């Protein structure tokens, strides 16, 4: 059961690798074929071209393919001319012809075996030289600039990706590829020093070492393999140093080092593919296939590229820009997949958010319903307690006193009237709850004025509060009604008053002053405090004031009436606009 998926993964990986190799070599073949000139230059190849030069009517030029540096061309009957790599030069006729042999002499080192000299129409020579210049130098500059820019971009963007080891090694690898391309093509002329070969091949083996580290990072980083790759680089560099110290030319040792290094790198890449075949995702296989294309191009140039009759574009020069496009395609593909995954994640998140919102809405509705039920139950319990403590208590005492024949008809009437007044206070408080306090007390004055008028007492009402006036909740308003009811009852029972005044004035710090005064006989508050019966009068008034969170002041003197001043804070009461 577990073998078939692995075989399937191997087939997929092998198809990706072979497909990448096929695409690269097809592109390489098409480019080489596209840059081949129409026809050949064989008729202009020296020395056979000497016979055509005398009859050539147009400007005559010379060109040498495959030069590594300046060279002196001598043709009998023509002025000697200096030829440079990938450049055509005009030929001028000489007055005398010295000898019958032509020669091509390179400065410094002997000319390469593949160097071939041509002479003919200047336009044809210049066109061929321009083609070689593009293949040998312009393409290399394209590789150098591309690799350096991409490597620098990856290193600059390291903080964005959390200093990824893979990104860091890949950036260094691209930079080393650009430097190696420049050293291989332009380094010998730009750095004519004894140690230049050491620098050139040292950078080459450093590039191969970074390639091995990149493969290691793709295949799940292993420190031992990384140290082994660095150790191989150290051994190769030590061999180069020993060769240079012994005075032996690098040409005898470098081909063997190249073969060993490429074989080790290719074998390590295959082993990494074997390890990744079980669990590695498709992107890692595709990037590894791109690295194998680059290795194959280097091996082709070193071991399989036949000596050209003319210059041919090296595969290792074409590999970096093509692999760059492959990497960009991989990045674009991964970006598309990441966008799809992000879109799916966003849709799933939106669905979860909508479900969560619906659940919260249901919970909120249920919670509000429970709060309403609790508030209704609390209000019901409060009303029951108020009725039990107020009307119920008065009626219970009346019932007991009537059974014992302890009350006169006048006292029974007063008790029943007190119960009715308390019921009316409760109904009024519920009806006027959260209404402006001036309107609530105006309703209280209208209700009490008729009853007091039957007893020959006038009830006046005066309010100087600003509009809109503050409001009280039901509980505080009921306590205020009961406090005023108690004060009026005391005036009726004890003060023999003829006029009662109810006033509301603004106080300091948002306090409301409710003043109840009468013109009765008055009393001495100090002596009344603690006396028998005080608990049913002044004590009830003080208790009601405490329930409201207010302060009560009682001012009275014999023969001068009584005044109750209640200070009610409004910070706990809302305001109604």
From TrEMBL:
Main EC class the enzyme belongs to: transferase
Reactions this protein catalyses: ATP + protein L-histidine = ADP + protein N-phospho-L-histidine
Molecular functions (GO terms): protein histidine kinase activity
SMART domains, per database record: HATPase_c
The keyword Electron transport appears for this protein: no
UniProt-listed Enzyme Commission number(s): 2.7.13.3
SUPFAM superfamilies, alphabetized: ATPase domain of HSP90 chaperone/DNA topoisomerase II/histidine kinase
Record-linked InterPro entries: HATPase_C_sf, HATPase_dom, His_kinase_dom, Sensor_HK_TwoCompSys, Sig_transdc_His_kin-like_C
Keyword field: Kinase, Transferase, Two-component regulatory system
Record-linked Pfam families: HATPase_c
GO biological process: phosphorelay signal transduction system
Entries under PANTHER family matching the protein: NITRATE/NITRITE SENSOR PROTEIN NARX-RELATED, SIGNAL TRANSDUCTION HISTIDINE-PROTEIN KINASE_PHOSPHATASE UHPB
Name of the molecule in the record: histidine kinase
């Amino acid at each position: 059961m577990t073998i078939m998926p692995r075989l399937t993964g191997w087939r997929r990986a092998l198809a990706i690798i072979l497909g990448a190799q096929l695409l690269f070599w097809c592109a390489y073949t098409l480019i080489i074929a596209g840059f081949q000139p129409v026809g050949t230059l064989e008729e202009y190849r020296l020395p056979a071209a000497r016979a055509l030069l005398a009859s050539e009517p147009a400007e005559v030029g010379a060109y040498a393919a495959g030069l590594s540096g300046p060279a002196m061309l001598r043709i009998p009957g023509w002025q000697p001319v200096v030829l440079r790599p990938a450049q055509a030069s005009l030929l001028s006729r000489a007055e005398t012809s010295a000898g019958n042999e032509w020669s091509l002499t390179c400065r410094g080192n002997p000319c390469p075996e593949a160097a071939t000299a041509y002479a003919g129409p200047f336009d044809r020579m210049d066109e061929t030289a321009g083609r070689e210049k593009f293949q040998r130098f312009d393409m290399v500059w394209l590789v150098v600039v591309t690799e350096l820019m991409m490597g620098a971009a990856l290193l600059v963007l390291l903080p964005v990706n959390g200093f990824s080891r893979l990104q860091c090694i890949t950036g260094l690898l691209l930079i080393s590829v650009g430097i190696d391309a420049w050293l291989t093509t332009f380094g010998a002329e730009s750095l004519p020093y004894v140690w230049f070969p050491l620098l050139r091949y040292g950078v080459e083996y450093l590039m191969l070492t970074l390639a091995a580290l990149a493969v290691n990072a793709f295949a799940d980083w292993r420190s031992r393999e990384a140290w082994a790759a660095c150790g191989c680089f150290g051994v190769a560099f030590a061999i180069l140093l020993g060769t240079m110290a012994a005075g032996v030319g690098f040409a005898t040792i470098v081909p063997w080092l190249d073969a060993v290094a490429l074989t080790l790198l290719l074998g390590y890449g295959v082993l990494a593919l074997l390890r990744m075949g079980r669990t590695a995702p498709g992107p890692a296989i595709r990037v590894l296939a791109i690295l194998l294309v680059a290795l194959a191009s280097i091996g082709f140039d070193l071991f399989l590229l036949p000596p050209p009759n003319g210059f041919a574009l090296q595969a290792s020069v074409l590999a970096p820009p093509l692999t760059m496009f492959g990497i960009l395609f991989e990045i674009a593909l991964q970006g598309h997949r990441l966008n799809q995954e992000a879109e799916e994640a966003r849709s799933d998140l939106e669905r979860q958010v909508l479900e969560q919102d619906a659940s919260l809405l249901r919970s909120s509705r249920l919670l509000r319903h429970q709060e309403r039920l609790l508030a209704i139950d609390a209000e019901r319990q409060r009303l029951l307690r108020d009725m039990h403590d107020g009307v119920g208590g008065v009626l219970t005492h009346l019932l007991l006193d009537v059974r014992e024949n302890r009350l006169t008809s006048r006292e029974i009437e007063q008790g029943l009237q007190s119960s009715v007044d308390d019921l009316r206070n409760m109904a009024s408080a519920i009806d006027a709850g959260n209404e402006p306090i001036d309107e609530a007390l105006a309703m209280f004055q209208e209700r009490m004025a008729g009853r007091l008028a039957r007893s020959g007492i006038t009830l006046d009402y005066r309010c100087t509060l600003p509009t809109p006036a503050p409001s009280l909740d039901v509980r505080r308003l009921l306590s205020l009604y009961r406090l005023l009811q108690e004060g009026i009852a005391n005036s009726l029972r004890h003060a023999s008053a003829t006029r009662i005044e109810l006033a509301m004035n603004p106080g300091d710090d948002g306090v409301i002053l409710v003043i109840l005064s009468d013109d009765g006989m008055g009393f001495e508050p100090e002596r009344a405090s603690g006396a028998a019966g005080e608990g049913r009068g002044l004590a009830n008034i003080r208790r009601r004031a405490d329930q409201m969170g207010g302060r009560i002041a009682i001012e009275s003197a014999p023969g001068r009436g009584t005044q109750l001043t209640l200070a009610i804070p409004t910070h706990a009461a809302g305001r109604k606009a």
